[in-house]
Specification:
The chain is 56% helix and 6% strand. It is mainly alpha-helical.
């Protein structure tokens, strides 16, 4: 199916409103409130498009468009929708705040590794990087929404509620930023250790010795190693920085699944410390996870967006925290981009599936995670055509291996990417009870998101066409997985509609897949908002057609008497002149359109000559 972001988003909004708004009242449902991640994802299905896409704005009732209002009619009319959102957001902030400050519980997204065991309530209340990152996006969207809506309402009760919600949201934003800082980790390993050997095999791919891998690693990451070791703002343990300075050791960096064991508290102002409460103790082993690293990187760009800057959404203290996060963001992108492209001849990323170094887990999902970080880095540094072309090929192979663009075989193991998904053991969780795991079942939605992002980055017509066709194929697959009856009609995720032999799944509808699809549509909107790629060949054709049309139009005006201004012939001459002027204006930005206009001018000039019986002068 063709990607139609506006129509698709309106359908999703209508489905969310139908599911969650019962006679105008928000219903969290049986599972609501048990996971801050799921609740944030549900709210972002509405708020993210409303803050990123101008026609979807909900903060100014006077500008709410009719089709948007119709999609959310369960919440009321255009003047009632923003007030209802304030109420719902206030409920979310209250639900996910404990006695000591904001909470970021994974809730039912956590599961025991052993199905026969039950997680303790304390384990389900542990904060998770997914929630920290999602809270940054949600809180910034909420603050931007409140900033505008506050100037559009005069109700005293609503204004008081907005002020309270602003303070609660700002506190949650700060707590999420502090938690992300305390979840970042650098893991230094000896090349002879089990993890060092796994990393050496990954980078050397059986073609390089340990010594050659170490030498190349030293050369590629020398400056980055120095930056990490010398950067006081990273707040790393002294032993870690000492180990980093030893160039005979390898390292990985990124985000653990939660607050790292022994992570020092982040120094904040007294007023900030009071609003965010006590900084909890960490339990996660100090090792980076690819999945949680990608999740963290996805949330942080919102801190540095033009909208955040223009609306002045960050306090001075939050800006200081954002600067510290940005350093980690850039270091992590550079590191994993370097790992993904470690060997110019054959990238490690191109050898699918990727194998993690610590737990030795192997899956196409981890290849997608590394590709996602590479996409972030390619966007940051404006990638070369070669990098883009090779990354496009990786995306196409992942879609094929994930049985998205190809037919699954009987008992195909690739179906496990989608259902039950890829499980991650959460190291350190066993300190509070049964060992926990986190399962990712959003492979298709993540692949679509990265494909659309690459499509927006590409300025090569052939690569963009490949990416667009791939994105449309993935969207076909995802659209077939919408729930068709029962709870959550029009939302995700009915995996059995595409993979009928996959295991039966219990639980609520999948807000993570639904929210990822919404992100994809927002990314597609940004793609189509760009100017089309300029073709040099089409530009040459357009220039030639415009030149010929301008010359023949000059001849027409030179040789023929001027027609009466209001006559049909006079109106036609005016139209030709306007189209020719427009073609000249568009030739640099939209050469195909300019070429079409010039051809239209040539056709009408020929019609004029033929009507006079003068077509012979055209060589006919």
């Amino acid at each position: 199916m063709q990607i139609k972001p506006r129509q698709n988003l309106l359908e999703v909004w209508q489905a969310v409103a139908r599911h969650s708004l019962d006679q105008g009242e928000w219903d969290w449902g049986e599972w609501g409130g048990r996971s801050s991640v799921a609740d944030a994802e549900r709210l972002l299905c509405l708020l993210y498009p409303a803050t990123e896409i101008e026609p979807f704005r909900l903060d100014d009732p006077d500008t709410t468009q009719l089709d948007v209002e119709r999609a959310l009619k369960n919440a009321g009319d255009s003047s009632e929708i923003p007030a209802k959102l304030v109420e719902i957001l206030g409920d979310f902030m209250a639900k996910h705040r404990g006695e000591e400050g904001p909470t970021f519980a994974g809730g039912y997204y956590f599961a025991a590794e052993d199905p026969a065991q039950e997680l303790s309530e304390e384990q389900r209340e542990i904060g998770v990087v997914d929630s920290y990152s999602m809270s940054i996006t949600l809180c910034l969207a909420t603050l931007g929404f409140l900033k505008v809506y506050r100037g559009k309402t005069r109700r005293a009760a609503t204004l008081a509620r907005i002020d309270r919600l602003w303070d609660e949201t700002s506190a949650r934003l700060t707590a999420a930023m502090v938690s992300l800082l305390r979840s970042f980790t650098v893991n230094v390993v000896d090349i002879d250790s089990e993890q060092g050997q796994a990393l050496s095999r990954l980078l050397g791919r059986g073609r390089l010795s340990d010594r050659q891998v170490l030498q190349r690693f030293q050369d590629r990451f020398k400056s980055l190693r120095s930056l990490i070791a010398e950067s006081v703002v990273l707040g790393l343990d002294g032993d870690v920085t000492d180990e980093l300075r030893n160039e005979n050791r390898l390292f990985e960096c990124g985000w653990a699944w939660s607050l790292v064991q022994g992570a020092p508290e982040v120094d904040v102002e007294p007023t900030t410390a009071e609003s965010i409460g006590k900084q909890p103790e960490g339990f996660a082993r100090p090792v980076p996870y690819l999945y949680f690293t990608v999740v963290a990187l996805d949330g942080m760009p919102d801190l540095y967006s033009e909208r955040t800057l223009v609306l002045g959404l960050l306090t001075a203290e939050q800006q200081r925290l954002a600067d510290a996060l940005r350093l980690r963001w850039e270091i992590t992108q550079q590191y994993w981009s370097g790992i993904a492209r470690f060997d110019d001849a054959t990238w490690p990323l191109e050898e699918i599936p990727w194998r993690t170094t610590l737990q030795q887990l192997e899956s196409e999902y981890f290849s997608l995670c590394v590709a996602a970080i590479l996409v972030h880095d390619l966007i940051r540094r404006r990638a070369t055509d070669d990098d883009l072309t090779r990354t496009v090929a990786v995306m196409e192979r992942l879609a094929d291996r994930g049985r998205i663009t190809s037919r699954p075989t009987r008992e195909d193991p690739a179906v496990g990417l989608h259902n039950p998904g890829v499980a991650l053991p959460l190291l350190g969780s066993e300190q509070l009870g049964p060992a926990m795991k986190w399962t990712m079942g959003d492979f298709s939605a993540q692949l679509l998101k990265r494909t659309v992002q690459l499509c927006a980055l590409s300025r090569n017509i052939a690569s963009q066409d490949r990416l667009l066709r791939l994105a449309e194929g993935i969207l076909d697959h995802l659209w077939a997985r919408r729930i068709s009856d029962g709870e959550g009609v029009g939302l995700w995720d009915d995996v059995h509609a595409v993979y009928p032999e996959s295991p039966f799944r219990q639980g609520p509808l999948s807000w993570d897949v639904t929210e990822r699809v919404v992100e994809c549509m927002v990314a597609a909107h940004a793609l189509y908002s760009q100017a089309p790629i300029r073709s040099s060949e089409m530009s040459a054709l357009a220039q030639a057609a415009i030149s010929e049309a301008a010359h023949l139009f000059g001849q027409e005006q030179l040789e023929q008497p001027a027609p009466a201004p209001k006559s049909p012939q006079g109106e036609q001459i005016k139209g030709i002149e306007a189209d020719l002027r427009r073609a000249r204006q568009l030739v640099d930005r939209k050469p195909g359109t300019a070429h079409s206009l010039a051809l239209g001018v040539l056709a009408r000039l020929y019609d004029l000559a033929r009507a006079r019986g003068d077509a012979g002068s055209w060589g006919v």
